[in-house]
Amino acid sequence: MAAWIPAAAEPVLRGMRGLPLLHSAHRMFASQTEGERKVTQILKENFPRATAIKVTDISGGCGAMYEIKIESEEFKEKRTVQQHQMVNQALKEEIKGMHGLRVFTSVPKH
Fold this sequence. Notes:
With 110 residues, the chain is an alpha+beta fold. The chain has a domain at 34-106: GMP Synthetase, Chain A, domain 3 (2-Layer Sandwich), CATH 3.30.300. It has three helices and three strands, in the order H-E-E-H-H-E. It has helices spanning 34-46, 80-90, 92-95, and strands at residues 50-57, 65-72, 100-106. The radius of gyration is 15 Å and the shape is globular.
């Protein structure tokens, strides 16, 4: 499965005196949260042909809002709304406890 470019690979934001900013929009050098791991596992189970899955907690770590990027052959010949419905169906139970969800889907380019 191909990976999305991690936040750690992005350039470090620098403030005054060239020191790194501590309140960057990305969690740098952090591992996945428990919620991110759970959502990722559910997506892997529901989209076994996925070539890339990236789940990011964008709520500041409380698990209330996630951004999901998923690339899978299962989305081939489906409209974007249908692709998103597939993701929402897979996460039906988890969505009940969320405040928001951003979904980005794509089909692998060969």
